[in-house]
Design brief:
The complex is a heterodimer of chains A (109) and B (123).
Chain A lengths: L7 E4 L5 E6 L11 E5 L6 E4 L13 E6 L2 E6 L8 E9 L4 E4 L3 E5 L1
Parallel strand pairs in A: 1-9
Antiparallel strand pairs in A: 2-6, 3-4, 3-7, 5-6, 7-8, 7-9
Chain B lengths: L2 E4 L3 E3 L5 E8 L7 E7 L5 E8 L4 E4 L8 E5 L4 E6 L8 E9 L8 E5 L3 E5 L2
Parallel strand pairs in B: 2-11
Antiparallel strand pairs in B: 1-3, 3-8, 4-5, 4-9, 5-6, 7-8, 9-10, 9-11
The chains are: A mainly beta (109), B mainly beta (123).
Chain lengths: 109, 123
C-alpha cells in the first residue's frame, strides 16, 4: 500500500483515538482523502470524504483533517461498535490510480 | 436507495476462467464510474480499476493491468470483473463500488460498496 497507517490503536470506551494516514505529494498532497470503516466480516463503508466531510448518517463523533501529505481520522466517544478496520484512500497521480492505506485496527479496551 | 449487489461465492481451479458481476440500482448507472477493489485474506484493500459505463473507458491500476478485465452492460446496469486464467494468488474477496467524482480529480471516493464476492482458487 502506498499510504501508511498505524497497524492498531486502542482506547477505553468513551475515550478518543486518532488514526494517521501518511502519503506524498502524488496522492494526499494534491488529492482529497476519504476514510472507510470495515466492520468484521462486512464490506467497507464510507465514513469521511473530501478530507473532512461526513456522509448523511455518520455521527459527528467521526472527524477528518488533512495537512500537507498526511491525513487524520478522529473518533471521539469510542463505543464497542467502533471496533473495526479503518482505511484511508486517495487518488495517486503518479500511478493514475486510486490507493488505499495499510489499514488500522481499532480496539475498544 | 443506492445499492450494489454482487454475484455469489465462487470456487474455481487454477487455469479456470471467471466473470463476477455487480448490479447497480437506485441511481443513474451511466452518471458514475464504477470500480473494483481486491482484499486478499487478512490483507489491505487494493484499488484495481474503474470503468465509465457510457463508453467503457477503463482505468486500471498498474498492478492489475493485463491481469483482469473490467466491463459493463449498461442496458442492465451491471459491471463485471473477469479473469481468463485464474491463479491461486487470485483468492480474495472482490468488492465493487460506485466511484463518486471524476477519475483523477482532486476529489473522488468510493460510495457505496457492494457486499463482496469471495473467489477461492484451489486445486
Amino acid at each position: 500500500s502506498v499510504l501508511t497507517q498505524p497497524p492498531s490503536v486502542s482506547a477505553a470506551p468513551g475515550q478518543a483515538v486518532t488514526i494517521s494516514c501518511s502519503g506524498n505529494t502524488s496522492n494526499i498532497g494534491n488529492h482529497h482523502v476519504s476514510w472507510h470503516r470495515q466492520l468484521p466480516g462486512t464490506a467497507p463503508k464510507l465514513l469521511i470524504y473530501d478530507n473532512n466531510k461526513r456522509p448523511s448518517g455518520v455521527p459527528d463523533r467521526f472527524s477528518g483533517s488533512r495537512s500537507g501529505t498526511s491525513a487524520i481520522l478522529g473518533i471521539t466517544g469510542l463505543q464497542t461498535g467502533d471496533e473495526a478496520d479503518y482505511f484511508c484512500a486517495a487518488w495517486d497521480s503518479s500511478l493514475s490510480a486510486g490507493v488505499f492505506g495499510t489499514g488500522t485496527k481499532v480496539t475498544v479496551l | 436507495e443506492v445499492q450494489l449487489v454482487q454475484s455469489g461465492t465462487e470456487v474455481k481451479k487454477p487455469g479456470d476462467s471467471l466473470k463476477i458481476s455487480c448490479k447497480a440500482s437506485g441511481y443513474t448507472f451511466t452518471d458514475y464510474w464504477i470500480g473494483w477493489v481486491r482484499q486478499m485474506p487478512g490483507k489491505d484493500l487494493e484499488w484495481m480499476g474503474v470503468i465509465w459505463p457510457i463508453d467503457s473507458d477503463t482505468k486500471y491500476s498498474p498492478s492489475f493491468q493485463g491481469q483482469v478485465t473490467i466491463s459493463v452492460d449498461k442496458s442492465i446496469s451491471t459491471a463485471y470483473l473477469q479473469w481468463r486464467s485464474l491463479k491461486a494468488s487470485d483468492t480474495a474477496v472482490y468488492y465493487c463500488a460506485r466511484h463518486v467524482g471524476g477519475v483523477g480529480a482532486a476529489s473522488n471516493w468510493f460510495d457505496p460498496w457492494g457486499q463482496g464476492t469471495l473467489v477461492t482458487v484451489s486445486s
